[in-house]
Amino acid sequence: MNSLVDSFGREHTYLRISVTDKCNLRCFYCMPKEGIVWKRREELLEFEEIFRIAKVFVERGIDKIRLTGGEPLMRRDLPSLARMLKSLGGLKTLAMTTNATLLADYADELKAAGVSHLNISIDSLDRMRFKELTGRDDLKRVVDGIEAARRAGFASIKLNVVAIAGVNEDEILDFVDQFKNTEMNVRFIEFMPFRDNEWQIDRVLTYKEMRDKIEQRFELVPLAAEPSSVAKDFALKGYTGTVSFVTSMSESFCSTCNRLRLTADGSIKSCLFFPAEINIKDRVRSGATDQEIAEMISYALLRKPEAHPPAEEIAAQQNRTMIEIGG
Ligand code: SF4
What we know:
Elements: E1 14-18, H1 47-59, E2 64-68, H2 78-86, E3 93-98, H3 103-113, E4 117-121, H4 127-134, H5 139-152, E5 156-163, H6 172-179, E6 185-190, H7 207-214, E7 220-222, E8 231-236, E9 242-246, E10 259-262, E11 267-269, E12 278-279, H8 281-285, H9 290-302, H10 311-316, H11 322-325
Parallel strand pairs: 1-2, 1-10, 2-3, 3-4, 4-5, 5-6, 6-9
Antiparallel strand pairs: 7-8, 8-9, 10-11, 11-12
């Protein structure tokens, strides 16, 4: 039975675990230009601590875990954490979000360790623009990583494209064209406000604007989605590829939210845009029992807001930067 129910009756089945605040790219919508103060090694949860906390979550209803960062593959020996988590009875899906720059070296090992669902962040197919957006000339490594993931045979590969007006909106159709004959899903994500990420309302390319652009050339056929899915999914008529939209700014999906987050430094975040969080690392390190960990999770759930505030209000909040949450 799922006991991870908040005060609005939402059952939580999906835990996103950030394993590091470090990344080898510098995407402006995620990492502030002036950088962040990296967490010291000892401030990060150890794999054994992550496993223990995840076990408490899974025993109470979590059946999907996603590993995030920063860039999760920056954390040494990540496949061993995947193996540990995959051993949890009750866990149905082990997923990961990565920028794929290191994926070519890890794809097979991650698949063998139990990771089945990959989301790969890629915001441009143009080498120079990729370099401009990420601060690194690494498009080739990302493309190699995507190919390695396809060869490894993951159950699902989604390409996450943060669509930003005046930045990469002219590539929306390029992405659809490039991947329309593949088994992969291209997911266009509305630009979200995080601390110091240069967000402005007029830089948000809305779901409607993106869909209108794509429907100039393609017929989109709606696909059924999980009730708590964050994406609106579509088949491309006549092709094998699919397209999706994550519309948190123009059409929020908070009413069916099933997500909780564990930060790399051991805090529970009940909501992506809610600054309040519960630090459980110190309690775990001072001998908290599983029951006490469960009580802290329930406390975080009780305080979870019904929905995120309007975008401008989010932009004004003192929340963590995106890289410190892991999306
Ligand atoms: S903003 Fe918060 S409540 Fe809304 S979908 Fe995201 S995590 Fe859930």
